[in-house]
C-alpha cells in the first residue's frame, strides 16, 4: 500500500451515498411497512459491503465475504421484495456483475427422469450468473422419503456452484423457518455456505392496515371510516383461518373489495356518481366477504 493510500481518510456514509445503495435502502424503508429487524439486518449487510469495497480499493486483501443468505418467514412477509432490493444493493456496490434476480422453485431445478435434473439446474444457474438466485421453499429440493427423487442431484450442483462461483452468484434460500431448519440439519453443506440468516416476522394487525392504506393510495382508492373498522375485523378473523399470507392476503382482500365496490355501484344504478364514489371502499364491500360467515377466506 502506498503512503498516500495509508493516510487516506474515508467517509463511509459518503461511500454508501456515492454507490447509490443508500437510495435502495431508503426505497426499501419506504415501500415496506414494519419489518424493523429485517431492515436493520439489510443495512448491516450493506455496511459490511461498503467496508469491503473500500478495503479492496486500499489493497487490504482479505477473503471475500460469503453473501449467500437464508430468508425465513411465513408467506407474504416481503421476502421476494427484499431479495430484489438486495440484488440491487449487491450490484451497486460491485459484488455482482448484473444485479438481476432469478426466482425459482423446485420444479425449475429438478427433473422427472434420469438425466433431466442436471441440465435444468445448470440452465437456471447460467441465467442467474452475475446476479441473485432466489429459491423459494427450498426445502422441497430434499425428499428423502422418495428414493427415486432427483432433488439431491440439484442440491449437489447448487452446493458446488455456491462454493466455486460465489464471487459471481449469490444464492438466497427462502421458506418457513421450521422447515428450513430441518432442511439445513439434513444438508449441512448448505448451512456452512449460508452467512446471513434473516427472519421475517408476521405483520401486526396495525401494519396490515397500513399496508392496505398504501396499496389503495397507489391505486387511487381509499377506505371509509366504517370500511376501515370492517377491514380491521376482517384481518382479525382471517388471521385465524388456514393459509393466511400476511400482505399477500391483504392484497387479495382488497382486490375482492374493489370487485364488490364495482358491482355495488352498478347495482345502485345511480346517474350522479362522483370521483369520490369511485374512489371509496365502503364497509359493505368488506363485510360481504365469506370470512364473516366463518366458511371461507374470500
Question: How are the SSEs ordered, and which strands pair?
Answer:
Elements: H1 3-6, H2 12-19, H3 21-31, H4 36-57, E1 69-73, H5 79-92, E2 101-104, H6 106-109, H7 117-128, E3 132-136, H8 151-164, E4 170-175, H9 177-186, H10 188-193, E5 196-200, H11 205-218, E6 222-223, H12 225-239, H13 246-268, H14 275-279, E7 280-281, H15 283-287
Parallel strand pairs: 1-4, 1-5, 2-3, 3-4, 6-7
Radius of gyration: 23 Å
Poorly predicted runs of 5 or more residues: none
The geometry reads as globular
* Straight-line distance between termini: 64 Å
* Widest beta sheet: strand line-up: 2-3-4-1-5
What percent of residues adopt helix (DSSP H or I)?
55-70%
Average pLDDT, rounded to a whole number, is: 92
Question: What portion of residues belong to β-strands?
Answer: 5-15%
Major pleated sheet: 5 strands, parallel
> What's the helix-strand series?
HHHHEHEHHEHEHHEHEHHHEH
Q: Say how many strands there are.
A: 7
Number of helices: 15
What is the SS-derived class?
A: alpha/beta
